[in-house]
Amino acid sequence: MIPENPNDSDFIKNIDSLKPDLFILASYGYILKKDFLSIAPMGGINVHPSLLPKYRGAAPIQRCLMNGDEKTGLTIFFMDEKIDHGEIFFQEEIVIDENDNYGSLSACLTEKARSVIESVLESVINKTCLRRNQEENNKSLAPKIKKEELYIDWQQPARVIHNLVRALAPKPGARTYFRDQEIKILRTSINMQNARPGEIIKINKCMAIGTGRGVLIIERLKPSNRMEMSGWDFINGIRLQQGEVLV
Fold first, then answer.
1. Counting beta carbons within 10 angstroms of the beta carbon of residue 54, is it exposed (0 to 12), middle (13 to 18) or buried (19 or more)?
2. Is residue 214 within 8 Å of 195, Cβ to Cβ?
3. What tens digit of pLDDT does each residue of 62-105 get?
4. What distance in Å separates the CA atoms of residue 97 and residue 71, rounded to the nearest whole number?
5. What InterPro entries does the record tag this protein with (predicted)?
6. Which of 49, 50, 82, 170 could disulfide-pair with 55, CB 3.0 to 4.6 Å?
7. What CATH code is assigned to 9-142?
């Protein structure tokens, strides 16, 4: 059973009664305090989907995609009382494919963690793991995605919006409005033609939207209360008027 607060004294007593040797955490939203971490003689380890100390926090995968990074990685470290701060003893770099989104990159990093966790645990148990401090000069943060960040600003360049769509797909989805109805944009590509920001145009039987620089091809979207569909199917069904825009 997952408690509301793992640092609650009653929960700590329950865990202590189990006499654990080691804790393993991944994608857990609480900072464990010293009273909790001191229960296990071998300490606690955390599996984190970034190349720490880059992207400390709740949304490392989304943030690296938003920033258009070309690589990320998996870090496993001994926890202390600070956020994603402890000594690293395993780290491996992963190349981000240009077509990766949050879903596919999460799956890739999860599979990497699954493939190495047994050998990583053996190194901890056998005391053969090599620990090193994180380089604080290279740290960056990955705070939780705020609701207002889900909404597309069509004044931004196509590349920036494309990376936002990747970071939020398949869930929760980058959002925009058309005729006062919310639409989730799920997959896009970039075209360097020009159109007024937000304007809906047609390019080679594709739905495209003008941005601050270039246009964004809308490959997949999901209108409110409707099934996911292609951008082309969407504009064929709405009787598009010339000059209509997404906002």
1. buried
2. no
3. 999 999 999 999 999 999 999 999 999 999 999 999 999 999 99
4. 8
5. Fmt, Formyl_trans_C, Formyl_transf_N, Formyl_transf_N_sf, Formyl_transferase-like_C_sf, Met-tRNA-FMT_C, Met-tRNA-FMT_N
6. 50
7. 3.40.50.170
Residue 116's SS3 state is: helix
Which tokens is 38 given? 């001191």
What residue spans of the chain are helical by DSSP H? 9-17, 34-37, 60-66, 102-125, 158-168, 231-237
Question: 24-65 pLDDT, tens per residue?
Answer: 999 887 888 888 989 999 999 999 999 999 999 999 999 999
**Cα-based distances in Å from 168 to 24, 116, 151, 152:** 27, 27, 10, 11
What's the mean pLDDT when you consider all of the chain?
95
Topology of domain 147-237 in CATH is Methionyl-tRNA Fmet Formyltransferase; Chain A, domain 2 (3.10.25)
Instruction: Give the pair of three-digit tokens for residue 182.
Output: 């919310």
Q: Hey, what are 97's tokens? A: 């494919």
Residue with tokens 């951008």: 231
Write out the E strands in the chain. 23-26, 44-48, 71-78, 88-95, 174-178, 181-191, 200-202, 207-210, 215-223, 229-230
Mapping DSSP to helix (H, G, I), strand (E, B) and coil, where does residue 178 land?
A: strand
